[in-house]
Automatic annotation (TrEMBL):
Any single Pfam family the record assigns to this protein: BCA_ABC_TP_C
GO molecular function list: ATP binding; ATP hydrolysis activity
Alphabetized SMART domains for the sequence: AAA
Source taxonomy: Bacteria, Bacillati, Actinomycetota, Actinomycetes, Pseudonocardiales
Chain segments carrying region Disordered: 1-27
Entry protein name: Amino acid/amide ABC transporter ATP-binding protein 1 (HAAT family)
Length: 287
């Protein structure tokens, strides 16, 4: 039953109560089966270029879901559709019971989707702590200005937000860099700080766009370790977009492989890694 398509799984889930799942389930099937994000038949075009062509998949609560594919496959485009930066011409995207297509990026962030960027998205002149505090901005009821007018309430809120940020600093072992301007952080640490900024938003779904791009082996292993730690400590689902297949194979519960905007394989990391179409796409890209 691990070989069912995403559609078949979705049907199976809606039709069968959780306790009706047969024995012999894989580790993937023992995950929380609740669908958090449902992407159906999404097509995105730029003039003559079809960046995404009828892409469908779902992500379950607490799942680490990976999207792989060669450069230009459409990975970043998926994220831009999920967070409202691009509007697909066709298809639906649903988070819980909320339809996302047509909503503005800020509205989608407020619904619980946070992202990191392929290129760093930190404010270089602000300290690491202040960057993380900005990540919480949408959670703050009192703005900076009203905060000054209503000092007591703002003070209590600030204490709460600082405490949440400090937890992330501890989780990601960023203590030594708390007061360092983001622009001066070593590259690997800056990528981790960006992860921290996204986590500070308390997302239910975190989108990670090539979190190890440009990293050496040691930095990559570090990042993998922190991602595992984040998963263990926080209740959130992650979609990891990655060019480098090795990282994905170690971390992901399920993998979706894209090439030229089309889904060419999906399943467990093992299934996808062995899929001839995936091997072909990667070898073709390298040639
Ligand atoms: N804003 C855009 N305008 C025009 N074409 C774009 C735009 N964004 C992406 N594309 C095209 O869509 C395709 C997929 O790009 P992208 O999603 O960035 O791929 P990946 O992240 O997998 O490398 C590419 O052909 C790219 O050139
Ligand atoms: Mg990309």
């Amino acid at each position: 039953m691990e070989h069912l398509s995403a559609e078949a799984r979705a049907v199976e889930r809606t039709d069968a109560p959780p306790d009706a799942v047969p024995d012999g389930q894989s580790s993937v099937d023992s995950l929380d089966e609740t669908v958090l994000l449902d992407v159906r038949d999404v097509t995105l075009r730029f003039g003559g270029v079809t960046a995404l062509d009828g892409v469908s998949f779902d992500v379950r609560r607490g799942e680490l879901f990976a999207v792989i594919g060669p450069n230009g496959a459409g990975k970043t485009s998926i994220f831009n559709c999920l967070n409202g930066v691009y509007r697909p011409q066709q298809g639906t995207i649903t988070l819980g019971d909320k339809r996302l297509v047509g909503r503005a990026p800020a509205a989608i962030a407020a619904l619980g989707i946070a992202r990191t960027f392929q290129n760093l998205g930190l404010f270089e002149h602000l300290t690491l702590i202040d960057n993380l505090m900005l990540g919480r901005h949408h959670l703050m009821r009192t703005g900076f200005l009203t905060g000054m007018l209503w000092w007591g309430r703002a003070k209590r809120e600030e204490v709460r937000h600082r405490a949440a940020v400090e937890e992330i600093v501890e989780l990601l072992e960023l203590e030594p860099y708390r007061r360092t301007p983001a622009g001066l952080l070593p590259y690997g640490v800056a990528k981790r700080a960006e992860l921290g900024r996204a986590l500070a938003m308390e997302p239910t779904l975190l989108l990670l766009d090539e979190p190890v791009a440009g990293m050496n082996l040691e930095e990559t292993e570090d990042m993998a370790r922190y991602l595992i730690e984040v998963r263990r400590e926080l209740d959130l689902a992650m979609i990891l977009v990655e060019h480098d297949m090795r990282l994905v194979m170690d971390l992901a519960d399920r993998v979706l492989a894209l090439d030229f905007g089309v889904v060419i394989a999906s399943g467990t990391p093992d299934e996808v890694q062995r899929d001839p179409k995936v091997i072909e796409a990667y070898l073709g890209g390298a040639a």
